[in-house]
Design brief:
Strand content: 5-15%
Number of strands: 5
Number of helices: 24
Shape: globular
Radius of gyration: 24 Å
Order of helices and strands: HHHHHHHHHHHHHHHHHHHHEHEEHEHEH
Number of domains: 2
Structural class: mainly alpha
Strand order of the largest sheet: 2-1-3-5-4
Largest sheet: 5 strands, mixed
Length: about 500
């Protein structure tokens, strides 16, 4: 019997112990590097939004379940500005690193495989870039990582308790992001095709029931509000370009994984599909299901990124069992990490980061918000006290709400995008309003007779972000065509 076959048989009975020393060292290094630059620039527009939605507690919102906004709200109540949110993002990243190593152990990998798997997750562009801000993307990655480990463990132990852990992870995930439905579908496909025998025991069915019960509050909220999550998904799919747009963006997946790690991905797919890891083909089924469903539904490329955790873990086990080129993988991981840090973290001067926007625009979306607030505050100071500020998107509204108070801004801030649209309209008539953001004058003339541009929004250091790309400006709008209540249905929008 070959070494590989013997390893496969051993894996079916028990998993190797965790190699905590190298794995924790890798996780700690990733955390320290990130923490050094975590708050170097500032808030991201999505972080403003998560905090504000968390201040409006509900079992759901038009674009997400409640878990991440709730966590963001609690983090915002701590001192330190945006730093507590970034610490949460770092914790999610570290969690993915540790779970990547643990999955390699569940696949039968020993110390070297676990270290390679942990290093791959820690240095992959997809996971590094996601953790630059706290939001549903980084929490979703943690859920997928936990689900891979929980399913692998349940298949090994075959106990009801182990399967209930699968259901618990699934239920938490469903209260965080709707795309977890695809993860659960992939697990179901994998069990049905390659582990049908396990469906004869109650564990998987109890797990499914637990996940469904935990998802009920959010489902009931969606149903009571006319299923806005489906409308939001349709809008996002249209912006991606539908299935053809998603298909055209599939080549981005290797780039998101990190070019140096593509070979590890190939080894992982080979090991799961045709190698000694055939008993873990259910993980490959999850990956295939995610790619097919997200592409067919017009999903964004990063939706399927969490499947890389399973592919990395499998590739790491393959690399360990072959035993060749022992010095190659550390070099590959270091190279991948350097690329990911340079492109994913705010480590460069602002102008240099601005030049890299085509590769990763997220970093520059964390730059310049205090200047934005200062410009709006200056314009608001010339208006009558209490003049409302109506913004084009949730990022602008969130920045003015969270950063405006310390800057002396006391005006009411409104928006009609996404969840903000459910928190209006205000009472009365919008007789004099400062409209701020990515508006066009003809659009504003649909609601006010007099529209005067006070000035464009500018960013410091001549950098660019979404605001400057879409000619965001400050407008004085007067003589409305109706009350707020009459205008609101036409003002609200999903994006």
């Amino acid at each position: 019997m070959s070494e590989i076959d013997e390893l496969a048989r051993t894996t079916a009975r028990e998993r190797p112990g965790m190699a905590w020393r190298p794995v924790l060292a890798i996780a700690a290094a990733a955390a320290v590097v990130h923490l050094v630059v975590a708050a170097r620039y500032g808030w991201h527009r999505d972080e403003f939004y998560y905090v504000i939605t968390g201040r409006h507690p509900a079992w759901g919102y038009v674009d997400q379940p409640p878990l991440t906004p709730l966590l963001a709200r609690f983090a915002d109540e701590l001192p330190g500005g945006v730093l507590p949110l970034r610490v949460l993002a770092i914790a999610c990243q570290v969690g993915c690193v540790l779970l990547g190593a643990k999955l390699a152990a569940e696949f039968g990998g020993r110390a070297r495989a676990q270290a390679i798997a942990a290093g791959a997750v820690a240095t992959s562009m997809a996971f590094v870039a996601a953790s630059v801000l706290f939001g549903t993307t980084v929490t979703d990655q943690l859920v997928w990582a936990a689900m891979f480990v929980a399913v692998a463990r349940a298949l090994r132990l075959r106990t009801t308790t182990a399967w209930l852990a699968v259901g618990l992870v699934g239920g938490v995930g469903l209260e965080n992001k709707d795309t977890v439905v695809v993860l659960l579908l992939g697990v179901a496909v994998g069990l049905l095709v390659w582990h049908r025998d396990v469906l004869r025991i109650p564990g998987p069915w109890l797990a499914a029931g637990l996940a469904c019960v935990m998802a009920v509050p959010n489902v009931l909220w969606d149903a009571a509000h006319g299923w806005p999550n489906l409308a939001m998904a349709h809008v996002l799919a249209d912006r991606t370009g539908g299935p053809l747009g998603s298909l055209a963006q599939l080549p981005l997946l290797p780039l998101l994984a990190g070019p140096p790690l593509v070979v590890l991905c190939v080894l992982g797919v080979r090991w799961l599909g045709w190698g000694a890891g055939r008993d873990h083909r259910w993980a490959l089924a999850v990956a295939a299901t995610a790619v097919v469903v997200f592409t067919a539904s017009g999903g964004k490329p990063y939706y399927q990124v969490p499947v890389l955790i399973a592919v990395f873990a499998a590739g790491a086990v393959h690399a360990e069992t072959t035993g060749r080129s022992r010095l190659r993988w550390p070099a590959v991981l270091v190279l991948s990490g350097l690329i990911a840090v340079l492109l994913g973290y705010p480590v460069l001067p602002a102008r240099a980061e601005n030049a890299l926007r085509a590769l990763n625009p997220t970093v520059m979306e964390t730059y310049g918000w205090p200047d934005f607030v200062a410009q709006v505050s200056t314009a608001a100071a010339t208006m009558p006290a209490g003049t409302p500020i109506f913004t084009s998107n949730y990022g602008e509204a969130g920045a003015l709400t969270i950063l405006g108070g310390p800057a002396g801004l006391r005006n009411p801030v409104l928006s009609a995008q996404n969840a903000y649209s459910d928190w209006g309209p205000p009472d009365g008539s919008p007789d004099t309003v400062l409209c701020v953001g990515e508006f066009k004058s003809p659009y504003l003339h649909r609601f006010w007779s007099d529209v005067t541009e006070i000035g464009p929004i500018t960013m410091p250091d001549h950098v660019r972000n979404e605001e400057t790309d879409h000619h965001a400006a400050i407008y004085l709008c007067q003589h409305p065509h109706g009350t707020w209540a009459e205008l609101w249905p036409s003002l609200r929008h999903y994006d």
